[in-house]
Amino acid sequence: MEINGTSYERDVPASLLLVHFLRDDLDLTGTHVGCDTGSCGACTVQLGDEAIKSCCMLAVQADGASITTVEGLASDEGELTPLQQSFHEYHALQCGYCTPGMLMSATALLEKNPRPSEHEVKVALQGNICRCTGYWNIIEAVVAVGEKGTR
Length: 151
Fold this sequence. Notes:
Helix 2 packs across helix 5 (135-148). This protein has 2 domains: 2-72, Roll (Ubiquitin-like (UB roll)), CATH 3.10.20; 82-148, [2Fe-2S]-binding domain (DNA polymerase, domain 1, Orthogonal Bundle). The protein has a 5-stranded mixed β-sheet, with helices on one face. The chain is α+β, with helices and mostly antiparallel strands and 151 residues long. The protein is 34% helix and 10% strand.
């Protein structure tokens, strides 16, 4: 599979979840384990152009896939994407645990719909839980990126 532009080939146990492959085998710890049931969205990554919950997918199911994790969003020089910058500007994080999943879900939304409405952002992020209840600032940050016409 290809992850963040780098090809990986590994033999993995058939029961290994994608989230654990990313975190434990590849040390991509930005993908968080929250609930292990697909309820919280902390483990969200992009599989192709779809936001998926990596705790609900086996690593072997991603064979041949292209995956982007939160580590793959910023440039190699560390320059933040407009969405990451907007999260910073709008204080769209508190404890930060949900932030990678929120960023990945919002990135997938903005790639399909570069100018989403507030309602469309809420629908796209409904599978991501913020335990600190920072939803309003997160929604504002995503809508602002759409209004600026950047991702």
